[in-house]
Specification:
The chain is mainly alpha-helical. The protein is built from four helices and no strands. About 85% of the residues lie in helices and about 0% in strands. α2 packs antiparallel against α3, α2 packs parallel to α4 and α3 runs antiparallel to α4.
């Protein structure tokens, strides 16, 4: 079964594999960020006290930013393996980086609104 999936993936052209890489990595990274936010807000952040929230938000933002940057590096490494051209690799990493930056802005703003004191 796994061999059949690998054979189908290897038969795809490079742009299609790049799109699959970006979409899959975006989904995994977004789920991981949501899990971090959920876990941190349930365990570490006392949402009834504004002082605790104001101290916790920068730590949460930095943690999510590190996760997003690490995912960009992982996409860059994976793109190196599956896309033969340098321009294609750079395009995939650039598109993914822009998507992650936009996602980070939305998440940061959402956290500000969610934990409004």
């Amino acid at each position: 079964m796994q061999k059949a999936v690998n054979d189908q993936f290897n038969k795809m052209n490079a742009p299609a594999r790049g799109v699959l890489l970006v979409v899959g990595a975006c989904m995994v990274t977004a789920c991981l960020a949501c899990s971090i936010i959920t876990f941190a807000s349930m365990v570490f952040i006392d949402t009834t006290k504004c002082g605790a929230v104001s101290r916790a938000l920068p730590v949460l933002w930095i943690t999510i930013a590190v996760v997003f940057l690490a995912s960009v590096v992982v996409v860059g490494v994976k793109a190196r393996k599956i896309i033969p051209g340098v321009a294609g690799r750079r395009a995939i990493v650039a598109v993914y980086g822009v998507v992650m930056l936009a996602s980070f802005v939305v998440i940061a703003f959402g956290l500000l609104v969610a934990f409004n004191c």
